[in-house]
From TrEMBL:
Membrane topology value: Multi-pass membrane protein
Biological process (GO), any one: monoatomic ion transport
GO molecular function terms noted in the UniProt entry: superoxide-generating NAD(P)H oxidase activity
Residues of the FAD-binding FR-type domain: 267-378
Protein name, entry field: FAD-binding FR-type domain-containing protein
Cell membrane as UniProt keyword: no
Keywords, comma-separated and alphabetical: Electron transport, Ion transport, Membrane, Oxidoreductase, Transmembrane, Transmembrane helix, Transport
PROSITE patterns: FAD_FR
CDD domains: NOX_Duox_like_FAD_NADP (cd06186)
TM stretches of this protein: 85-108, 120-140, 194-212, 224-241, 247-263, 295-315, 382-401
GO cellular component: plasma membrane
Subcellular location: Membrane
Stored Pfam families: FAD_binding_8 (PF08022), Ferric_reduct (PF01794), NAD_binding_6 (PF08030)
Length: 550
């Protein structure tokens, strides 16, 4: 194999280091907590129910806290924890080393800045492969590392921006060189040797998809971001024409990408029946129940949904609110989703459900691709599990809560003794959309009394003038209705997450606690801080966090 190809392989392998480090660290961390708990023996050699957790070393606690909160100011600014910051530093550092330090892997016959620019293009070749690999939903990288697609997107984003810097450096140094020679225009427009024209076009395509990837577009004009991203095809094709080594590596990445596309296509063709589709106007949300014969998923996962009548191409991610049967008894899975009306696509969905009225389930056709992602913690191995969520962020948390309860009901092995569910909603009228799930949890909790304790609290944070209290009266009057909305769970106000955690810590001073959080970034940050503050030698609060932003 030519040395040029070896070098690109070495670079690609080096770029993967942060991903594998993250995976190794995550697995070590989880295994360490489980192992410590299994092997813990109290100082007096006896075991008592009141103390089942290990005594952690000071170093372990310090590291745990550091990983959770990192550098608070930087976390608030970047939304990254310490481990992400370390990974980013390694990633950028690896890139810099290959660009700046003359290594035997990246050789060029030119010198000075031009040489550095060419090396940057080399490293970009490795990145081209990495970018495509991290853009696949059904990814071999996910299988090997256990890092789900929604987290992998972070690496995709990093590599995109770093690739842009590499290619910009390469372009600028080449342009500078031609300028010095006074041949800039001839070089670009040389019709006999089109390589430079291809390179220029490739870079221009890149500018388009990088510019529209900015959160400004990604969060506000998702479709614009999404369709502009396909400029990557132009970038790759012209990049390949510009330099055959690039073609080789991006072709390898493309192979994974197309493989993923084929899997997605095949999956999306599998039939799925809409069983029920209900619009909850007060919650501004649609609740969907699907029956998908060959669909399998785990609690806390999400799926991509396509509504054929709205758009053939648009697939939107939604966490499943339901949890599968832990014994796999049903032949076909029923999947529940809650879709909040936040933008163009979800608005159109709401309108079509309203238009179809009672026939909505018969007229709206959906396809499902999943399940993707998975909670980073195994909640069944902790004596205490605590779920914090805000608004529609409740969906994955409710799914995991239900799965833990179902496990306990089936008598499957679990370390869970107590489950806490804290949900913040702005207005009480969000509750009816989740009435079925919440009532089911309440009923199961009643049956499990003495085996598994479940505490559920729902906080109404905006003043809705006691609307729910009136609803509570109405509900009481209509007892015996189809599904009861558990308004009695509601409490007014917005208690600090830290205060709730202190209460949990006081109730379980020596237990490890698994925390799941999904909601706005500020809620995730508060939860991580509260978990760090309440972790001590006798018990750690480990956190799995999610936010609905890719
Ligand atoms: C892992 C995950 C799980 C989610 N689970 C739920 C859920 O259970 N319930 C729920 O109501 N919402 C959930 N969301 C959010 C949901 O995907 C978006 O609200 C929805 O796609 C909005 O599309 P829109 O066109 O109506 O709104 P837009 O105004 O186009 O977008 C609103 C927001 O959604 C993002 N978004 C839009 N389209 C997509 C897409 N195709 N892929 C990723 N993000 C997109 C945008 O960046 C923006 O931040 C989840 C998102 C993710 C990433």
């Amino acid at each position: 194999m030519p040395t040029t190809q070896v070098s690109a392989f070495v670079i690609t392998a080096a770029l993967l280091v942060p991903v594998f480090l993250a995976s190794a660290f995550k697995n070590f961390n989880v295994s360490y907590v489980v192992w410590s708990r299994r092997n813990w023996k109290p100082a007096d050699g006896t075991r008592s129910d009141s103390k089942t957790a290990p005594s952690y070393s000071k170093l372990r606690i310090w590291f745990h806290k550091l990983c959770l909160t990192g550098v608070p100011q930087l976390t608030a600014l970047t939304g990254m924890g310490l481990s992400e910051m370390i990974q980013l530093t390694i990633f950028v550092g690896t890139n810099l080393i290959f660009v700046v330090v003359p290594t035997p892997f990246v050789q060029s016959e030119v010198y000075g800045m031009l040489n550095i620019g060419r090396r940057a293009a080399w490293v970009g070749t490795g990145l081209g492969f990495f970018i495509l690999l991290t853009a696949t939903r059904n990814s071999i990288l996910e299988t090997v590392t256990g890092i789900p697609f929604d987290r992998m997107v972070m690496y995709h984003r990093w590599s995109g921006y770093v690739l842009y810097l590499h290619m910009a450096l390469h372009s600028v140094t080449e342009l500078q060189n031609w300028d010095r020679q006074g041949t800039m225009w001839q070089q670009i427009t040389n019709t006999k040797r089109l390589l430079n024209l291809y390179g220029t076009l490739s870079f221009l395509f890149m500018v388009v998809f990088v510019a529209f990837s900015h959160s400004l577009f990604r969060r506000r004009f998702f479709n614009l971001f999404y369709y502009c991203h396909f400029a990557f095809v132009g970038y790759t094709v012209f990049g390949g024409l510009h330099w055959d080594e690039y073609a080789l590596f991006s072709a390898a990445g493309m192979l994974f990408y197309f493989f993923d596309r084929i899997i997605r296509f095949v999956r999306s063709r599998q039939s799925c029946t809409v069983v029920s589709l209900k619009h909850f106007s007060s919650a501004n949300m649609v609740r969907v129940v699907l029956r998908a014969p060959r669909f399998s998923y785990h609690a806390g996962q999400y799926a991509f949904i396509n509504v054929t009548g709205l758009s053939l191409l648009a697939w939107h991610p939604f966490s499943m609110t339901s949890a599968p049967d832990p014994l796999g008894r049903s032949e076909e899975e029923y999947v529940t989703l809650h879709i909040k009306n936040v933008g163009d696509w979800s608005k159109k969905l709401v309108e079509s459900v309203q238009e179809a009225g009672k026939d909505a389930a018969k007229t709206v056709r959906m396809s499902i691709d999943g399940g993707h992602g998975r909670p980073a913690l195994d909640f069944t191995t902790f004596p205490v599990a605590l779920f914090v969520s805000g608004g529609v962020g409740v969906t994955p948390m409710l799914a995991v809560l239900q799965s833990l309860i179902k496990r306990a009901e089936c008598g499957l092995p679990t370390s869970n003794k107590k489950l806490y569910f804290f949900w913040y909603i702005r207005i009480s009228s969000t509750l009816p959309a989740f009435a079925e799930e919440l009532s089911a949890v309440q009923d199961a909790a009643g049956r499990l009394r003495g085996v598994l304790d479940v505490v559920m609290r729902v906080f109404v944070t905006a003043d809705d003038e006691g609307e729910w209290r009136r609803s509570l009266v109405k509900e009481d009057e209509m007892k015996g209705g189809v599904v009861r909305t558990p308004y009695e769970l509601l409490e007014e106000g917005k208690p600090e997450v830290g205060k709730l955690f202190s209460e949990v810590k006081a109730a379980h001073p020596s237990d490890d606690v698994a925390v799941g959080v999904c909601g706005p970034q500020s809620m995730v940050n508060d939860t991580r801080s509260a978990a760090a503050a309440n972790s001590d030698r006798s018990g750690l609060f480990s956190v799995h966090w999610e936010s609905f932003e890719l």
